[in-house]
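JOB MANIFEST
job_type = single_chain_structure
chain_count = 1
residues = 426
[input]
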Amino acid sequence: MDRKIGVVGLGYVGLPVAVAFGQEHSIVGFDINEQRVNTLKNYIDITNEVSEDELKAADITFTTDASALSNCDFIIVAVPTPININKLPDFTPLEKASESVGKHLTKGTIVVYESTVYPGATEEVCLPILEKESGLKSGEDFFIGYSPERINPGDKKHTFKSITKVVSGQTPEILEIVAAVYESVVTAGVYRASSIKVAEAAKIIENTQRDLNIALMNELAIMFDRMNIDTSEVLEAAGTKWNFLPFSPGLVGGHCIGVDPYYLTHKSESVGYRPELILAGRRINDGMGQYIATVLVKEMIKERVAVVGSTVTILGLTFKENVPDLRNSKVIDVIRELVDYGIDVQVTDPYADPEEAKHEYDVNLVHIEELKPSDALVLAVPHKFYLDKGWDYYANLFKKENGIIVDVKSQLNKDNCPSNIKLWRL
């Protein structure tokens, strides 16, 4: 395999891809974010996905100059595919990346997209831009492929190299080249999809399936709470059956599970079918922040805590535990709902970047040592930082001897919870 590889987009997906290839080949890593590129040049990854040693071991030329891609004949595009305020696909990052690649595309180059899209988007959205910007003809002068990303932020076990890679290509010949390139670094091997659309569809249903399963758990949690049954105990009991799937309730945010199903439903509706089940699951999961806030307010009323003017501390703002990623965090839904009740909400998170929190959500993060005493706590994100603390630590965060804790992901052990703490678990 003798290909000059370029990676476009050096975020949670692109950087691990670039580092994996950079350990075996000399590659170009391109990103439009100058600060991101400069920190990577100094072997610092603020996402904590790649270590300093791994960056030093990789032969990567980091750059914000897209012209460097003209020296590459195998370009991997790994940029975000978010949704807009109306929950419709926002292809802006993908379109801009395609423009940059197209302007510097040379004959014989293969462009492989890893961004999650609906079936058909690579050929319908990206390919025309590449042709327009390059003046070259797809299928003759250059070729495209698709290999869906499977990066799980914060997961040090299932990594780029250790996860089977689905690959696809514009022609059977291109498919084999794409497969060979990825096989040079992915130790788990590759799976050859029959077409680009099949590979796109496979990726998007991976996350849609998880979204629906979590939605079921969330709906069960709401039901069981009304029946005064502990959901965690129910799931533990049911989990003794060999084929019971280990899903649990919680806030569904991030850039995958809470976003990707909308790409699929958008495409489905465009061809005349409204997917009721998928959209129902989305409604349940998107409403969990409001539900959790409402539960807390009810618990405060039961404990005779004056709601208006009270103080609630939110522990954790990132979309999942032990990562700094704030994208599409559903914790903000809890915060905004509590604020609407007239509650003074203070938020702390040892992983999140304060500037990003302010920019994305207009949230002023408070250092944990500077928290004001509160009436209630919401353990929204079970970072190891919090779970390593004992009950005495939580008790010291309250205004009074008594307090309320809402444990969103049921990570605290209720069996040794002090009697002066009212614990509610989703």
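[summary]
The chain has a mean pLDDT of 95.
The longest strand covers residues 165-169.
exit_status = 0
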